[in-house]
Amino acid sequence: xxxxxxxxxRRTVVYIALFFLAWLGIGAIIGALYAAxxxxxxxxxxxxxxxxxxxxxxxxxxAVAAIAFTLRSGTRLxxxxxxxxxxxxxxxxxxxxxxxxxxLGDGVPxxxxxxxxxxxxxxxxxxxxxxxxxxxxxxxxxxxxxREELEGVLAHxxxxxxxxxxxxxxxxxxxxxxxxxxxxxLWRSAFFMRSRGRDGAQLMMLVFAAGALLSVxxxxxxxxxxxxxxxxxxxxxxxxxxxxxxxxxxxxxxLRKLQANDIPLAHTNHATAAMCIDDPLQHxxxxxxxxxxxxxxxxxxxxxxxxxxxxxxx
Length: 314
Fold this sequence. Notes:
The chain has helices at 2-37, 48-82, 93-106, 139-144, 147-162, 165-192, 197-228, 232-245, 248-260, 270-273, 287-290, 298-313; strands at residues 85-86, 112-116, 123-129, 132-138. The chain is an alpha+beta fold. It has a four-stranded mixed β-sheet, with helices on both faces.
């Protein structure tokens, strides 16, 4: 367990470094493209090195700003995107009591508690660490699960917090989301731009190039990075949750209900879907489709828990 926590901390640093390097690469390429588009006449001074340095400097500033934003406001952004609202402790006393008992048993601070008004049953945890974390459940989960099943789901989410899975996913998902957001803004800007003269054509070319490069980061490298995080993270949280609640039957029954659920989650995207206990975007059955899933199939997770339950009852 401690090795898993240390590994997740190391991976967070590695992914931040990779993101920073990717942005520097984009800045250097755009700088080189600008230099090529404004090549001096024969006998003039070559400005390529200077333009590349300027591109690197601008990209570095944007990357540092994005990382700082993620570390400071990533949790609030995820909760806002998911449509999560703070839970009322009096109206949701059972939810608060279960999370409080699990936090005490896990030796971590009590996380903030949020609810998403959505009939689809699901839950996720997010935050930069145990001291700054939040557990969110949907109203559908509260309506569908009994006390034992709800405890199993919450124990799974509390394990993500203790294992620092939440910080790793938060950093990666937010950085990928920002790249995709900037790419979308650039594509829309390019659509409304008009090329007037050589300078206008050069500006359009740079906007297209930046949009294409950010799209690669946001829509191609992003999913690959998520795959690198490994589907094993969910299975580890299942096992850790059972260890915390000391009751595999609760999470086992909850997963069976989630497997049978056919109500789609209303507010979801690729960033928040990877955090959910049941990936709302993952309903693939083909072998090739499963290569891009961020969660193992629920049937496989149920089989593991059934084996754990049999081991405990022998």
